[in-house]
Amino acid sequence: MQALYSYLKEHPVTYVTRQRERAEGLPEGTPGYFIYTDTHKSTREILASSEFQKHQTEHKSDVLVFKSNRQEEELAKNMDWKILNPNAELAEKVESKVGQVRWLGDLVRYLPPHAIKSCRDLRYDGTPVIVQFNHAHSGLGTTLLDSEVKTKQLAEKFPNRPVRVTKYIKGAVYTNNNVVAGKRVLLGNTSYQITGLIGLSDNPFATVGNDFGLPGTLGEAERGAIRKITKEVGERLVSEGWRGCFGGDFIVEEDSKTVYLIEINARQTASVVFESKLQKENSEAGVSTFEAHLAALVGLDYGEELINITKGGRFLRRLTGRNLPAGAKNKLRDLGFETITFEPEKEGDDLLHIRSSENLMQVHGVPSELGRQAIETLIQHD
To answer: What is the pLDDT of residues 50-83, one digit of tens each?
Structure first.
């Protein structure tokens, strides 16, 4: 991927983000690659600031954000800056829970049995279902509808809001980060999606980490199904002119082993930088997911595939009503973890990332010994 680093020297790029970690996918100090961050402003506010405009006057760089929206696109256009992210309207169609059903077309067959309804039309018939609002992320807009009380609460609070109502499927969730590079679809590594572990979040549906070792226990049929669905979704994105990263979430039904697509992330997902660091630790040669993402966005042609990894994991401690135990971060570092601290604003936001080059899960829902030690550290004296 030397072509990318040569390109950046002549065509600088600035990644604008509230959370610096999202942009740290290239070696620190890479010539022509800048990270501009302000934790107290939205991305649009950063772009509109006089300080960032001075940066642009000096560096004349193209702009990359985590996930663009129409307001940021309009601002960049008015300032005569090139924003590298794919079209925000297309991203919205692909990612929104309701609009996604229409966008998928015949690929909708890969979703679990589902229906689109307004909340006022929800009914509880004794069978639990999953309800997802049109806009959500990291499981934070997902509700298990398993009682008449919850049904009435949603109907009264959001009567006109459309939701996707999906059959409740028991099983493990897996995710992957992939890249559309021109006409090619680069299939990424599959990780087990850690969800709702006690000590990391109060929300049982919140994503609280990834583990790259556990997918190795999947059967070839399940791995093949994930690859097939991902490739077909990627090809649909190619036909729409997409560039760069997209993620897929899948659930493997516990009894039948049927693989269902449950989510498409039309953007660089939150785990891309961590995966890219594992890839570079694993192999000096080859392309990381972040490198491929950026190369695709600037239009570079190359033939390499993404580096394969089979080990490594991270936990996400989200903001809850419970404080971190005193000295927890030091203890985690003593255990060999890398920790990254965030400044959350509301419950459910990221508070602490805990990273390891080792696996953190033993089987579905059960941490490894190292994972157990990390969680115990987080809940001691809590």
So the answer is: 999 999 999 999 999 999 999 999 999 999 999 9
β-pairing verdict for 33-37 and 114-118: unpaired
Return the CATH class of domain 171-379.
alpha beta
**Per the structure block, which two tokens stand in for 312?**
């490594």
Nearest alpha-carbon partner for 320 in 150, 193, 140, 172 = 140
Helix ranges (H only) for 283-360 are: 289-298, 328-334
Report residue 84 as tokens: 């590298």
- Domain 2-85 fold is Rossmann fold (3.40.50)
Asked whether the whole model's pTM tops 0.90, one would answer: yes
Residues 6+ apart with CB under 8 A from 251: 112, 169, 171, 172, 173, 174, 259, 260, 262
Element containing residue 33 per DSSP (H, E): strand 33-37
Two tokens, residue 232: 């077909």
Task: Choose which CATH entry (3.10.20.90, 3.30.360.10, 3.30.1490.20, 3.40.50.720) describes domain 113-167.
Answer: 3.30.1490.20
Q: Which two tokens stand for residue 331?
A: 């203890």
Please classify residue 77 by burial: count the beta carbons closer than 10 Å to its beta carbon, then call 0-12 exposed, 13-18 middle and 19+ buried: exposed
